[in-house]
C-alpha cells in the first residue's frame, strides 16, 4: 500500500493515471456517464465512494448534489493514507467539495466501520477490483439500504487502459530487470559527483569514458528489447527523463536520479497492482458466484469512452 500512499500524498490529481484536465476530475463522456448513474438518487441520499484516492468521484457526486440543491451526505474511503483535504485548487467547487465530504483513509472496503444499510449508493471507479472480492462484495451488500445500488467501474482485460499499462509495465521491467541499466547510471552519477567535488575534469576521466561507453551499448540493447516487446513509446519516455542527468552533469544529479528511481519503482508497483486487478472472464464468474450466494443479481456492461473500451461496469440492485 506504500506505493499508493506515496502517490496520493505527492499528487494533486483527483484520480490516478491522469494528467491535464482529466487530473481535476471527470469530464465529457465519463462525467455524463456518472451523472446518469446518480441522477435518480433521493434528495437526501447517503453515498459511499470506494477507493476514492484524492476524491474524483466523490467530488463529482458532491458537485451534482450542490447544483441540484440536494442534501447528499457523501463519505469516501481508501485503503491508502489519503489526505485530499490538504489540497487546494483554483476551482472553488472542488475546494468546497473536499471540505464537505467525509474522507476516511487507511480504510479497506473488506471491513468498514459503517452501520448496516447506511447507503443509497456505493460507487467506485477503478478501485473495488483491487480488494478481496470475497469479502468486499459481502461488505457492500451489508452497507446498502434496501433497494440501494452498487455501481463499480472496473479495470477490464480488453480496455485500452489495460493495454497501455501492460506496455508501460514491460518497459519498466526492462529498466529494472535487464542489464543492470539503472545500477550503471547510478555508478556514473556517483563518479561524476566524486570528480566534481574534487574539481577533477570528468570528461578526461578514463573510468567515466569506459562506463559511458558501456551504458550507451546497454541503451541500444534495451532499445531492441523494447522494440521486440512493443513498448518503445513507454521506453523512450522513461529514457527521456534519465538522459538529461547524463548530458548536463551536475553534482546534484545523483540525488535527483535516486529520487526518480524510487518514484519509478512505486509507479511500477502500482501498474502491477492494476494489472493484477483486471477483470477477466474468470473474475466475472467469481463475482457472479459471490453475489449469487448473497441472493442478489448483478449485471456487467462495457463502457466506451472516446470510441475506445474504457472498462467494465458492475451494477448490483439490493433487494
Please give the share of residues in helix.
40-55%
Q: What portion of the residues fall into strands of 2 or more residues?
A: 15-25%
User: How large is the radius of gyration?
Assistant: 23 Å
As an assembly, this protein is single chain
User: CA-to-CA gap between the ends?
Assistant: 34 Å
Largest sheet: 7 strands, mixed
Shape: elongated
Structure description:
- The protein is α/β, with parallel strands linked by helices and 319 residues long.
- Helix content is 51%, strand content 15%.
- The chain is built from eleven helices and seven strands.
- The protein has helices spanning 2-9, 28-38, 56-67, 92-100, 133-143, 160-177, 181-197, 206-228, 232-247, 253-277, 281-293, and strands at 46-50, 73-77, 102-104, 119-125, 144-154, 298-305, 308-317.
- A seven-stranded mixed beta sheet has the order 3-2-1-4-5-7-6, sandwiched between helices.
- Helix 5 (133-143) links the parallel strand 4 and strand 5 (144-154).
- It is elongated, with a radius of gyration of 23 Å.
Question: Top keywords for this entry?
Answer:
single chain; 11 helices; elongated; seven-stranded mixed beta sheet; 319 residues; alpha/beta
Short description:
The protein has 319 residues and is of the alpha/beta class. It is built from eleven helices and seven strands.
Describe the protein's topology.
Blueprint: H1 2-9, H2 28-38, E1 46-50, H3 56-67, E2 73-77, H4 92-100, E3 102-104, E4 119-125, H5 133-143, E5 144-154, H6 160-177, H7 181-197, H8 206-228, H9 232-247, H10 253-277, H11 281-293, E6 298-305, E7 308-317
Parallel strand pairs: 1-2, 1-4, 2-3, 4-5
Antiparallel strand pairs: 5-7, 6-7
Helix pairs in contact: 1-10, 2-3, 3-4, 6-9, 6-10, 7-8, 7-10
